Amino acid sequence: MLKTILVPVDGSEKGFNALKYAVGLSKDCGGKIVVSTVSLPYAFSEAAKEYVSNISDLVTTQIPPKTKSKSGDLITDFSKDRVLMTAKKKLARNKDLVVEYRQIIGDDPAKAIVDQAEAIKADIIVMGNRGMGQFAEILLGSVGNKVISFAKCPVVIVK
Ligand SMILES: Nc1ncnc2c1ncn2[C@@H]1O[C@H](COP(=O)(O)OP(=O)(O)OP(=O)(O)O)[C@@H](O)[C@H]1O
Ligand SMILES: [Mg+2]
Q1: What are the structural domain ranges in the chain?
Q2: Which of 1, 19, 60, 69 has a CA-to-CA distance to 41 between 20 and 30 Å?
Q3: Which pTM value belongs to this model?
Q4: Which residue from 10, 38, 84, 126 has its CB within 8 A of the most atoms of ligand 1, so it is best to mutate?
């Protein structure tokens, strides 16, 4: 029986594969899904470049911070975040799932994910083996690698 499944997504296909896997896990083992994305704290971040197609979008992605996490990262309103909106669309058909969406503004995604897992007492983290990074030949990206190393809960890596 799981209570909380943390799924960090970065907009990549692998991240969304992880989300799909987490849905199955939640159906089989229970547990609320917390979908979380970590965005860099400045406008022309790599993340922003990937998802922001025009300048007005860029402005609307600058959302005022709402709360601060334990580690000091800012947690903002997710409503304008493209990665989370895509995740939400992908889960639209799964009516009986309990899902929360969180955007965390921080410059170290792995640290933010590990801290968040502890803060929400995640039973498990489900994430992709690769993300938006360019080096196709490596098996596991740096964020995944660091989360596996530092997370206190089990981590499932989905390919
Ligand atoms: N900014 C982020 N916010 C939330 N989850 C993330 C973020 N970056 C990566 N992840 C999660 O980590 C998984 C692995 O991504 P990772 O960044 O480690 O690989 P990569 O982008 O291919 O490599 P690198 O970032 O080292 O160039 C993703 O599928 C996603 O689940
Ligand atoms: Mg990456």
Answers
A1: 4-158
A2: 19
A3: 0.83
A4: 10
Domain 4-158, CATH number (from 2.30.180.10, 3.40.190.10, 3.40.50.620, 3.90.360.10): 3.40.50.620
The burial of 89, by beta-carbon neighbours within 10 Å (0-12 exposed, 13-18 middle, 19 or more buried), is given as exposed
Q: What is the pLDDT of residues 73-103, one digit of tens each?
A: 555 555 567 898 899 999 999 988 999 988 8
CA 48/CA 38 separation, integer angstroms: 11
Residue 28: band (very low, low, confident or very high) from pLDDT cuts 50, 70, 90 = very high
Determine the residue of 46, 104, 143 to mutate for testing ligand 1's pocket, defined as the one with the most ligand atoms within 8 A of the Cβ atom.
143
Q: Which residues pair with 128 in a beta bridge?
A: 158
The Å distance, Cα 133 to ligand 2 centre, comes to: 5
Is the CB–ligand 1 distance for residue 14 below 6 Å? yes
